Every structure is written in structure tokens, then in C-alpha cells.
Amino acid sequence: MDKSVLVVRGGALPIESGLGRAHNAVTERLRTGLVMGWSLAGEIEHPLNDGQGAVKRLRKRWSIHPRKVASEIANRTPSIVHITDQEQAHLVPENAGCPVVVTIHDLFHLDPQVLDTEWGPIQIGQKPGFVRRMDIRRLIAGLRRADAALCISEATAAHVKRFLPELRTFVVPNSVDLSSRDPRSGRHPSPNLESDSMHLLVVGSEDRRKALDFALEIIGALDVSVRRDVLLHKVGAESSSLAENRLKKKATDLGVRMRWHGRVEEEDLIALEQNVEALLFPSAAEGFGLPVVEAMASGCPVLVNDLGAQNEHPPMRSILPAFNRDVWCTAIEDMHRVWTNRDVPIRPIDEEMIRSAEKRSPSEIGVIQASVYDQIL
């Protein structure tokens, strides 16, 4: 008889969000039989937006929902309880009667750090206010009660081991839906990408950690004969008008052509990934680095800083010394040379990128997930 997993979270985040997508991936692997020997006992969550005020929402988060979770665990008696992100670790009950594991995506906000880089210091995470500090204390206490942490990358696992050395730690990476991105089964048409430009892509918010400024600076440092051919496409929903205007001005000052897309539909993002020359991903720190794997699954070359966790996915040729401007410029110049000499207008599919992305397929991660559950039980 299959062993069962009760999957738990707080508010039902939409699948468009990173945490919502990761939660859905965990449940779908269980639901579709990819976690061999394990079945889905059910999900516990609550509506995300219920119109309540701040005090009532805190009461639900800190009191009502944790009691419901404890009661459901007692009633359903699963083999394992899996809480799908560290922001819900306060839901780990006392004396659950079975192992309780928590997926940790990152500890950026539970344990903020300043990372010293060649590009200067970068704040990872934010200093919390009074209520948030109370919340974080509950989250850390919940993690201490948990039987294990399921970390989505080696980088996150290393941070957990430093921060909570007594917590048993495993690596279970996120999985990525590869089939929807595989250009070999149907490549999206070029989304109005002019043939006289070399198109590059950046994906992410304007947070300094994402280092969009660095991407602009390296393109601005290219020889004008290269720079004038480059068109940088910026995709990311977490925009403020001030940040957008500042970065657009910086691009203009540096002589960088940039097309600001903001939030785009998934199909439009895939079309960009499948047709641009490369994704530039110079982030200073990631819990996983989903845009890197998604671009690779689309057959798109990537360039990443040699920092966790985005450096855990691509082949070595894609991993550059962190914030080394000269090396980054050389890599883009090499791409430009290939683009200039190519006989066809469409970039060939990068098969090596797809093979690397396949290591993060739902079936591959399902095997890892089953093995970790078995070890914990």
C-alpha cells in the first residue's frame, strides 16, 4: 500500500507566483504517480484574499490555520506532512505523530545577509519591521520543530546548515515543465525581433540582488560596433515606476538599447526564450534560479554569475566569474561574432541546454522526492 503525503500551505498562492508554482509542482508529482511508492493524501490551504483586515489575517495565520492543520493531521494520519515553503513553517505542529518536512526555497528574509562582490556589497533580504520580526520568530521556531528541510538547491541547503545546523537537510530541486518549452516539438515564431539586432534577454525584478544594473553596465562597456547591434529585452513583473524610469535612463546614458516588457504571458516569454541569442542572468543570489532552467528548456543559451544557485543548472561554458566585467563582455562579444557570421536568421536550438534542463524534469525530481521521503520515514 502506498505511503501518503499531506501537503500543507497557508494562503493559496496563484500558480503564476514562484511559490505557488512550486507548491503545485509538488502536489502534481504526487498526484500523477511520479513519486514512486507515495500518494497524495490531500491538501490543506485557505483562500489567499478573504477581505479581512490585518488583525484578522494575522489571527488566521498565527492561530486559526495552525489549529486546523494540527486537527487535519490527526484526522487523516498521513505518513508524512509536507509544508511547501518556509514562509509557512509556523504550521509545523507539536507532536504531529508523523514526520513533518518543510521545503525551504531560501532564507533571504529569515536570515538577511550582505554579500561582498566585485560589483560592491549587495543586501540579500530586507530588515524586518516589528510585526514581521514576530512572524519570523514563529517561522524559525517551526523550522526547529520540523523533522527535515527539503531545500531546492545546494546553495539553499548550505545556508540552512549554517543557520540551523541541527536541522536535517536534503536537496530536492524544483521541477520545471519542459514539454511546454521544448522547441524541438514546435518552436514559437519570432515575437517581432528585428533581424538587424542581436537580441538578449534579462528576467527579474529591479532589486539590486538581480543585478540588472550590471547587465546594463557590461553592455554599455562593449565596443560601439557590438553595442549598437544589441537589443536588451527586460521581462519582470515586480516593477515600480521609479525603478523603471531610473533603469531606462541608465540604459540611455550608457548607450544601451533596451525594450521594457514588464509582465508578459507565459507563451510570450517562451517565444522570447526560444528566439533571443541568450539569457543574461547576473543575479547575486537565488534560491533556485527558475528563469535559467526555463530558458535552457527552451533551447536558449544562458550566461550566469558563478554564484548559488543559478550556477547549479547550466553547463560550465555558461558559468562566468561573478561580476567580472571583462569576462562578461568577452562572452557577449563571442556571441556577437557568431551572430554576425551566421547564415540563417534564426538561432539554432542549443541541445546541450535542453539536456541540462532535463535534469530538472518532473520525473527526475519525482525520483529524488521519493528517495528523500523514504529516508525521512
Number of distinct beta strands: 14
Shape: globular
The major β-sheet equals:
6 strands, parallel
Number of domains: 2
Q: Write down the secondary-structure element order.
A: EHEHEEEEHEHEEHHEHEHEHEEHHH
- Measured by DSSP, the beta-strand proportion falls in 15-25%
Superfamily at the CATH H level of the largest domain? Glycogen Phosphorylase B
Question: In short, what is this structure?
Answer:
This protein is α/β, with parallel strands linked by helices and 377 residues long.
How does this model look, in words?
The chain has 377 residues and is an alpha/beta fold. It is 39% helix and 19% strand. It has two domains: 3-175 and 361-376, Rossmann fold; 183-359, Glycogen Phosphorylase B (Rossmann fold, 3-Layer(aba) Sandwich). It contains twelve helices and 14 strands. Helix 7 (241-254) links the parallel strand 10 and strand 11 (257-262). The longest helix is centred in the N-terminal third of the chain and has 23 residues, at 54-76.
